[in-house]
Write a structure and sequence with these properties.
seven-stranded mixed sheet, mainly beta, four-stranded antiparallel sheet, globular, single chain
Length: 126
């Protein structure tokens, strides 16, 4: 069983930065592709970024491309989401998710992930 824990959320002014972390215990993270998703009130969950097991393949949503960076340190069982130039529309609960089996081409699809964290709130004030 993989347990994911997100941290690093908070309140920040527009233009600021936050760095989210997703860690796991009880399993070797290097065997899992990891995605970040977000959900704002009244909206559906949406894809943000994803990274393959090796870190060699990365995808971003168009809305965050150039502002967010996903990375992983498998030795620390941690995946990061560096968020720069934050906008009020980035306000949401951010979730990390992991899968040991999904094809690289499906990393944007939340249905493909088996394990989810509890989420961390990000609020960007204008």
């Amino acid at each position: 069983q993989v347990q994911l824990v997100e941290s690093g959320g908070g309140l920040v002014q527009a233009g600021g930065s936050l760095k989210l972390s997703c860690t796991t215990s009880g399993s070797t993270f290097s065997g899992y592709a990891v995605g970040w998703f977000r959900q704002a009130p009244g909206t559906e969950r949406e894809f943000v970024a994803a990274i393959s097991r090796s870190g060699g393949t990365i995808y971003y949503a168009d809305s965050v491309k150039g502002r967010f960076t996903i990375s992983r340190v498998n030795a620390k069982n941690t995946v990061y989401l560096q968020m720069n130039s934050l906008k009020p529309e980035d306000t949401a609960v951010y979730y990390c998710a992991a899968s040991a089996t999904l094809p690289i081409g499906n990393m944007r699809d939340d249905d493909e992930y088996q394990y989810w964290g509890q989420g961390t709130q990000v609020i960007v004030s204008s």
